[in-house]
What does this fold into?
Amino acid sequence: MSQPPSTALPHYELLYHPGIPGRGEFIRLALEAAQTPYTDLSNASPSGYTTVQQTCMSPKNLSSSDGNPPVFAPPALRIPGGGQSEGGGKALVIAQTPNILWYLGEKLGVLAPGGGEAGRYHVQQVVLTALDLNNEVHDTHHPVAVGKYYEEQREEALKKAKDVRETRIPKYLSYFDRVRQHNERDGGGQGKYLVGEKLSIADTTVWQVLDGLMFAFPKEMEARKKEFPELLGAFYENVKQEGGLKDYLSSKRRLPYSMGVFRYYKELDRQ
Amino acid sequence: MSQPSSATLPHYELLYHPGNPGRGEFIRLALEAAQVPYTDVSNSSKEGYALVQQTCMSPQNLSSSDGNPPVFAPPALRIPGGGGQSEGGGRALVIAQTPNILWYLGEKLEVLAPGGGEAGRYHVQQVVLTALDLNNEVHDTHHPVAVGKYYEEQREEALKKAQDVRETRIPKYLSYFDRVRQHNERDGGGKGTYLVGSKLSTADTTVWQVLDGLMFAFPKEMEARKKEFPELLGTFYGNVKEEGGLKEYLSSKRRLPYSMGVFRYYKELDRQ
It folds into this structure.
């Protein structure tokens, strides 16, 4: 990864589970798109996950770390020095994926949407909606018991997956595509960006959910490509070609989907 | 409601469904706590909901209104004049997604601004987002497998889901909210009554609302949990109700009762 022009950026630490893209991936994509150095703690060393567990997953913690408030669950972002370029100062630890993405959107110039204040909120509402879809996909294999295995809730999963595929996915795809069209018409988005004139976290976040959906429900998404050719074609492909992402997606840092949010169960796909 | 000290705040418009608290309630509580005038469009006139449907619920819209991007679903906040220009003029700004709106109001309404500078804003927001996640899980207890179908069509699955939520999820969230409260009591001047910082913030109003809804939806479960979390479900919960604008709001007609929204009472889904 190339160095950012300003050396004042802290060296971010991503605190997440090892071995899967998961929710951490939304944050990795933002950092990689901005070509900003960071450490993915769990994947960087064997003791990395222990730090994540102590900081983010201990049910009695009255603090995450460095005097910051407790965290409900990973992912979290640890910012040495609290983001203060003069050095010194406690580390800042923040949690919740959309919260971290807003933070990075503010700090990493390259991800800043145009359109002033309005642009930031318009990016964020797309980010939040994409993450809502991400949650609904998780529910397709865990509809009634978060802590039990998929195999223990197969019948319910069949019903839930059908509902998500038939009524929810199209609603979301329509929304993302209409945002894209609005921005093409009014915001200089050229049909490739969802908000503003260049890549933002709205693009990286929606892209990741689309990519995961294509893995989880390949037949469904193949069929939907006919209804949403620009979103699932041009938009999807363009994000992959952007700056830091092209390099990242072909690197070893990009982990394959396995048993995280996006899983392939043939019976849950369109038949 | 008393007038805000600055006359330059725009007259906010809440765009949400009529007749129940729902997600709109998180936004109403923030506005009411700050004692800021607003119009709850659906509940203020007969044509109000038609406007909400046109702006936020039309599946072909390429814009919500006033040139703003489309909205996925209510709630949305419409800010005449774009919210930043006290001279008037300028297009309205329309923003959507409950936590997004709450961040916006947290920035604009002094009284809700948490202390602790930049860090404080993010620490408030992670609590807000987590409370809204719990809100979603409660919705799933009566609609676990089909969002668009009735509860009665998914009763068996709902029994399983509600049991899982009551036994494993609610305690995890309550523990988290209470540890945040304790951390802030120890380190942030929260006195045990505020979750972040030394005065009421959107973290407090948002968690409060979810707790209140849970007490309606699962009264036996929450009665039992009060023994484990007496400060959160007792002192914290009781104090928020007494805060400035909220005390007046909660006894007013603007505060609608729960019915068929996120928080519903189904006896069979509660602890038996």
Observations:
- Chain A touches chain B through 57 residues (CB under 8 Å).
- Chain A has a mean pLDDT of 93.
